[in-house]
UniProtKB/TrEMBL annotation, chains A, B:
Keywords: DNA-binding. PANTHER family: MARR-FAMILY TRANSCRIPTIONAL REGULATOR, TRANSCRIPTIONAL REGULATOR, MARR FAMILY. Pfam families: MarR_2 (PF12802). SUPFAM superfamilies: Winged helix' DNA-binding domain (SSF46785). The keyword RNA-binding does not apply. One of its GO terms (molecular function) is DNA-binding transcription factor activity. This is DNA-binding MarR family transcriptional regulator. The keyword Acyltransferase does not apply.
Length: 144, 144
DNA sequence: GCAAGATCATTGCAGTTGCAACGATTATGC
DNA sequence: GCATAATCGTTGCAACTGCAATGATCTTGC
C-alpha cells in the first residue's frame, strides 16, 4: 500500500491549525493591523502584566528574536511600554500602555466570539479536543 | 477579566500542531534531509501517482511557488521526475523516481510508527480528534 | 478562425523566520 | 574578589514564505 498523506495525523493537524489561525488572524489584522506574533505578545501581556521578553518567549512558543521585534513594533505603535528592570539590568520590562489595554479589550471580545463560533462548529467533540491539547501541551517543553 | 491566551483554542491548536510537526520533521530531516514542503510533495506523489503542480497545490495546502521550488529541489535530488503533459502543455507531470519510491517506503514506515506513538499518547480521545479534523478540513476550501 | 480572457508554472521581490553571534549584565566556583 | 560561565535582549544573515507579475499555453465567445 502507498502512504496516504491525507490520513496522516500530523499533517491534518497542521492544516487544520493553519486554517483556523488564518481565519482568526484576518480578524485582528482588520481590527488593528497586527501580525500573529504581535497578537500573541499583546494577548500574553494582557494577562501576565509586566514581564520580560524571555518570559514571553518561553510561554508563547515564539523565538526570542521574533518576540523582540514584535515588541519593538508594538512599542512604536504605542501599545506597549518597555522599561528596564532595576534588580536585573539584563531584563526588559514589557507592559501594555492604556491604548494597548483598550485594544486588548476589543480584541478579547472578538476572540471570545470567534472561539464560541469555533466550538459550535466542532460540536460535541470539543471537550475531547480540549483534553488532547492539554495533554500535548504538557508533553514537550521544547527546552531540549 | 483579562484575556487568557493559553485558554484560547486557535492558539493552543497552533502550538500543538507546531510541536507535533516539529517532532516529526526532525525524523525525516535526519533520514533524508527533507524540508516540510518537500516531504509533503513527496508523500502526496506517493499516493497520487503522476500529477501536476496545480494538483498538489490544491490538495496539500502549500502555495504554488512553494510546490514549484520543492519539486525542483526534489528533481535535483533524483527523487522526482518532471515531464510535460502532451494533452495540455501548460501542465507539468510530476512523479516519483524509483529512488523516490524507495525513500517513501522507508519514510512511510517511519510515519506510521510516529502516528502510532502519537495515537497512544493521545489515548481514548483520538477518535474524537479524527472526527474534528475531518470536520474542519471539510469546512474551508480556501477557494474564496 | 480568432481575439480576449483564463489557467499553468516559474520567477522577482519584500517581509518574516530561525539560528548563531554579539555586547552587556549577572551568577557561580574557588 | 575575581575569573569563568551563564543569561538576556538585540542584530546579521541566510533561507523560506506569500504575493504579484510574467510568459506560455489553452478555452471561450462570437
Amino acid at each position: 500500500m502507498t502512504f496516504r498523506l491525507d490520513a496522516f495525523l500530523p499533517y491534518r493537524l497542521s492544516v487544520a491549525a493553519a486554517q483556523v489561525s488564518r481565519r482568526f488572524a484576518a480578524l485582528y489584522e482588520a481590527e488593528a493591523g497586527l501580525t500573529i506574533p504581535e497578537w500573541r505578545v499583546l494577548a500574553h501581556l494582557d494577562h501576565s502584566g509586566a514581564v520580560s521578553i524571555r518570559d514571553i518567549h518561553a510561554r508563547v512558543n515564539l523565538d526570542k528574536s521574533v518576540v523582540s521585534r514584535a515588541a519593538s513594533r508594538l512599542q512604536g505603535a504605542g501599545l506597549v511600554r518597555k522599561s528596564g528592570n532595576d534588580a536585573d539590568r539584563r531584563l526588559i520590562v514589557l507592559e501594555l500602555t492604556p491604548q494597548g489595554q483598550a485594544l486588548m479589550l476589543r480584541l478579547g471580545r472578538i476572540a471570545e466570539a470567534f472561539q464560541a463560533d469555533l466550538l459550535a462548529e466542532l460540536g460535541p467533540d470539543a471537550a475531547a479536543l480540549d483534553r488532547l491539547l492539554s495533554r500535548l501541551a504538557g508533553k514537550e517543553t521544547g527546552a531540549a
